[in-house]
Amino acid sequence: MTALFDINQLLDELEKGLRRILAERGIEDPVLIGIRTGGVWLADVVGKRLGVAEPFGELDISFYRDDFSRIGLNPKVMPSSLPFDTEGRDIILIDDVIMSGRTIRAAMNEIFDYGRPASIVLATLIDLGARELPIQPDVVGSSLALEAHQRIKLRGPEPLSIELQESGQ
Amino acid sequence: MTATDPSPNHLQLTRDGQLRHFLTLDGLGRELLTDILDTADSFIEVGERSIKKVPLLRGRTVVNLFFESSTRTRSTFELAAKRLSADVLNLDINTSATSKGESLSDTLLNLEAMASDMFVVRHSQSGAPHFIAESVTPGVAIINAGDGRHAHPTQAMLDMLTIRQHKGRFDGLKVAIVGDVLHSRVARSQIRALNELGAEEVRVIAPGTLLPRDVENLGCTVEYDMSKGMKDLDVVIMLRLQKERMEGALLPSEREFYRLYGLSQDKLALARPDCIVMHPGPINRGVEIESAVADGPQSVILNQVTNGIAIRMAVMSMAMGGQMAERQHKQIENEEIRA
Questions:
Q1: What positions does the entry give for L-aspartate binding (chain B) (predicted)?
Q2: End-to-end CA distance of chain A
């Protein structure tokens, strides 16, 4: 396990990128949704920095995963909570890591079951590449290519830190 | 057909402990029961959305196989399956006593040939769902929706969910089950679940004629006098008087039963002031329960119905997940053997 990044620097990047996109698109009153678990921690920090109105939403995408038919239901599923009307709203969707893009597909499917948003901006702290779906984040804290035996994990919620885990060595 | 399999878990669980059928609560530990309740909590949230559907069972076929009539259980199973995006087929089958065994197998093999993934089974004979899971259609997930006097595990679990919602815990709770315990598959499953989840005391309150002979072995205390039995209760669960199952003169009269064992406001006042009142339905007003109690502030009877959908969604998706994980496992094993 190695501390790999300065987490504050990545959060600064996310904040800066989101401010730019919101300004470009003329979005003044977005709602913020984090994907459980790491995305929820990040949403809390980034939302406060941006001054987005609370409460923030929390998504558990277990009911929308595309690997249900292979591994069954996640036994630790928690209720999703979107304590605002998403219909016609501009949504900022946050997750800690993007790789295949499957989590984001599941999250967008779930969001649409609550209503039809006006737009979704996707922000992820780390982009690991290795995409399997045509889904790209609008804002990224940092990009990184991992070796096959490496895993990355966000620890939190207080303090937030990023760990690189080496396995099978 | 009997329901006396001492260790049903080789049948109910996959090799890594996931549910693949849901037949009985016997042998299921506190951790798995808690997982079911937690998963159901997440499905309650789904029921509050504008689109009350998740795609978990999309493309799967669920057959509601009711050999015994039921309105509430069948409709909540149907809604649960539809909210999981499954295709649902409802079959009400009136069995003729003579050809039951054979026609049951044939019916099921035909349904299996239609590529069904799950059977929700209600049957008047104890053990019918076990028999189906074990001998008839092992690749189809079987959910027990009530079998004879044996078990009604989804009803018991929705009751546990309701208790947890209102009390936040099981430790230290005193729970009474009142009425026709003898004919009640619900009571058996409830006693089992309450003990496993750690309730302090499970008390049955009934006349001796409506108690099974082995009642103490079920893990409960027995009280014949309801006025004494109501003392200190946190939860009182009323059972329906199963008139259609009564054989011979077990009761002097309905009016006498109500006087002794009906839940009136007077009797409820003997329990703790925050005692909740539950009933699996359908209620016989004025037979087991006074209308003012059934509709009163301590009644959570309609919460039970709402929770029934969430519990059934949880159990169906967990069992289907277990079946599919197992199929995947077998496929990998077969490929390894070939390679």
A1: 100, 185, 240
A2: 12
